[in-house]
Amino acid sequence: DTGVSQDPRHKITKRGQNVTFRCDPISEHNRLYWYRQTLGQGPEFLTYFQNEAQLEKSRLLSDRFSAERPKGSFSTLEIQRTEQGDSAMYLCASSPLAGTGLYEQYFGPGTRLTVT
Amino acid sequence: GIQVEQSPPDLILQEGANSTLRCNFSDSVNNLQWFHQNPWGQLINLFYIPSGTKQNGRLSATTVATERYSLLYISSSQTTDSGVYFCAVERYTGNQFYFGTGTSLTVIP
Predict the structure, then answer these.
(1) Which of B96, B98, B104 to mutate to test binding with chain A, by most A CBs within 10 Å of its CB?
(2) What is the pLDDT of residue A97?
(3) Confidence category of residue B53, pLDDT binned at 50, 70, 90
(4) How far is A115 from chain B (nearest CA, A)?
(5) Nearest Cβ partner of B90 from A50, A56, A103?
(6) I want to staple B70 with a disulfide (CB 3.0 to 4.6 A). Which of A36, A78, B63, B66 is the partner?
(7) A99 Cβ partners below 8 Å, 6+ apart?
(8) pLDDT of the residue at B92
């Protein structure tokens, strides 16, 4: 068990470009979360999957953002037509199987996005 | 959503000192976690503590769910304890966490 991994760790892009981030959760964790963190703030929830089903989306997740978890394993977060305000750390977390009574969330190292 | 307030926002300690960080939340919660965010941005799990008291080495935590607060105690602080400490609460099991704005701790030798 190597923990939650994210790729890339850093991404610099020009305004208007599309970017895609990947998250690989801890194996056997069926819940996966995306958060966004800006400087000086705590992480803010974006969206949540249980297996391949996207169960909840924050109002922060505008139409330019889309997330998928096609086979209930890894997930991708895509941002289209990036804006400077999208610059942030994007964090992924996973938690164990529903019904186990275990709910602790484990976070990956994050992807730091800079939009120029 | 739930409001999560952490205090103090900033804390500077001499190595070896003890400290108490507080987390207040505005509504009843099912779950609560404490995290340490290191300088590289990695969130490290410290405690999963929806209620009661837990200890792990020099760190301990207490959550009084009925009074909507949690405390994180750091004893004999070390320079490696520096970083930002976050409290996160979950209203309904399995859903999103709401984070506080954190306590930034600096431990000086």
Answers:
(1) B96
(2) 67
(3) very high
(4) 18
(5) A103
(6) B63
(7) none
(8) 72
B71 contacts B21 by C-beta, under 8 angstroms: yes
- pLDDT at residue number A102: 67
> With a cut of 50, which residues of chain A have pLDDT below it?
none
pLDDT for res B1: 79
With CA atoms as reference, report the closest residue to B31 among B49, B55, B54, B5: B49
Residue B69 CA to residue B61 CA, distance in Å, equals 11
Alpha carbon distance B61, B49 (integer Å): 8
- DSSP per position, chain B: ---EEEE-SEEEEETT--EEEEEEESS--SEEEEEEE-TT--EEEEEE-SSEEEEETTEEEEEEGGGTEEEEEE-S--GGG-EEEEEEEESSTTS-EEE---EEEEEE-
Which residue in the block uniquely carries the two structure tokens 């602080």?
B77
Which residues lie below 8 Å from residue B79, measured CB to CB, with a gap of 6+?
Answer: B15, B107, B108, B109
Q: Token digits for A100? A: 């186990």
Least confident among A59-73, B15-29, B90-104: B90-104
Token readout for B43 is: 């969130």
